[in-house]
Amino acid sequence: MAVDLLLGLQWGDEGKGKIVDVLTSKYDIIARFQGGPNAGHTLVFNGKKHVLHTIPSGIFHEDAMNVVGNGVVIDPVIFKKELDKLEEQDVNYRKVLLISRKAHLILPTHRLLDAASEASKGKAKIGSTLKGIGPTYMDKTGRNGIRVGDIELADWKKKYRALANKHQAMIDFYDVDIQYDLEDLEKDFFEAIEVLKSLTFIDSEEYVFQAIKSGQSILAEGAQGSLLDIDFGTYPYVTSSNTTAAGACTGLGIAPNKVGEVYGIFKAYTTRVGSGPFPTELFDEDGETMGRVGHEFGATTGRPRRCGWLDLVALKYACQVNGVTQLMMMKGDVLSGFKTLKVCTAYKYKGETIWHLPYNIEEDNISPIYTEFKGWKEDLTKMTDESELPKELNDYIAFLEKELGIPIKIVSVGPDRKQTIFR
Ligand code: GDP
Ligand code: IMO
Ligand code: MG
């Protein structure tokens, strides 16, 4: 059976966690393929909110297997905290959570390096979540990393020490004031490693291969969003992994011809957390309203998210890079009450009108050209059927479908599992 992908099409936080949870009943296996604890995926059901960072969003369904793929980077300390939270909720994860031996480990010194690197950048900082993501992927591609499978080997601590020592020298090199007590951090780290070791490690590419062969259905859950992709995002203000469709192939060992549906998920407006260009960003009352009504605060860091109008140029680009076959529009309910809605349909770029994402979308070069839409007043949050949606929202949806040439199959009207309209 083919593997379906679920990918964020903007700068992350589109609502991936919610939709994976909604779709899990249709799948045998949910698999994360990249990113790590920089992600914060929120699920709401039975009046309770849950935030997952590294654990796939299928974990609350008893029947689904949850795979942490080789492309993911794991911080054992954060992973342990996630497990503790699951235990508090009586989630029996032991039999359904599988971890790739090839996933890389985030060491305490990776986190410190992240902080040192950001501090040294001053105003040009990436706005990283400071979870050690960049340094860990650097060690992976630099062929120095420590993988989950290593901790099953007798002499892995030697390798750990050598790498941590090297990291300490690098932190010194940055010449910034980073206070830390490594012994203390390592105590937590090695405790968490023991917890990790009590879970099931697998050769995940083989597991996925056999699952596909035997006809099991798999949903690959992306983290972050296409505009944070290391290759195709707004570099250098990106994360350090491929968040786009190809990342699912390398992050799980799925052959490209085994990819089935590509679900692209986007908010009806745009948000971004951290630094970097954002052509449709709003600094006015409208932006403030989106942030307030949409509760736009980072699920991992609590930072306020920057808000702005939907950027169709960027969205089209993301659909192209990913080969999106179905769209899901989130948080339409947040736009209720806006008199006029705007969608960026082109850019003014160095004096010319363009319809694609150029190399450099820094503010000085680019300004958005908007198409305006009449807003709707109705509260969408109690609606359960497509037929209830207001005309103005249907017009908005129809315009996006026509421009993107891809059907919008889900309209989400609230954070809860149940607030989901299928079209
Ligand atoms: P993810 O990282 O893509 O999983 O998204 P986050 O969980 O970081 O952020 C999405 C936020 O929006 C969470 O607080 C969700 O509970 C919430 N959310 C998801 N869908 C909707 C929706 O349709 N309407 C509203 N109002 N909130 C939503
Ligand atoms: P989910 O999966 C939103 C952003 C950070 C920063 C940049 C680099 O919840 O959508 P990193 O920690 O990776 O070095 O940060 O990427 N970022 C996210 N923004 N949602 C996320 O994940 C993000 N993960 C990283 O804010 O700008
Ligand atoms: Mg998030």
What does this structure look like?
The structure is a single chain. The chain has eleven helices and 20 strands. The radius of gyration is 21 Å and the shape is globular. A hairpin with a 7-residue loop joins β19 and β20 (420-422). The strands form five sheets. Strands 9-7-5-2-10-1-11-15-19-20 form a ten-stranded mixed sheet, with helices on both faces. Strands 14, 16, 17 and 18 form a four-stranded mixed sheet that branches. A two-stranded antiparallel sheet has the order 3-4. It is α/β, with parallel strands linked by helices. α2 (76-88) packs across α6 and α3 runs parallel beside α5 (156-174). 6-O-phosphoryl inosine monophosphate (IMO) is lined by residues 8, 11-13, 35, 38-41, 126-129, 131, 133-134, 223-225, 228, 239, 273-274, 299. Magnesium ion is lined by residues 12-13, 39-41, 299.
What order do the helices and strands come in, and which of them pair?
Blueprint: E1 3-8, H1 16-23, E2 29-32, E3 41-45, E4 48-52, E5 65-68, E6 73-74, H2 76-88, E7 97-100, E8 104-105, H3 108-121, H4 133-141, H5 156-174, H6 182-197, E9 200-202, H7 204-213, E10 218-221, H8 245-252, E11 259-267, E12 270-272, H9 285-293, E13 306-308, E14 310-311, H10 312-322, E15 326-330, E16 340-349, E17 352-354, E18 366-374, H11 391-404, E19 408-412, E20 420-422
Parallel strand pairs: 1-10, 1-11, 2-5, 2-10, 5-7, 6-8, 7-9, 11-15, 14-16, 15-19
Antiparallel strand pairs: 3-4, 12-13, 16-17, 16-18, 19-20
Helix pairs in contact: 2-6, 3-4, 3-5
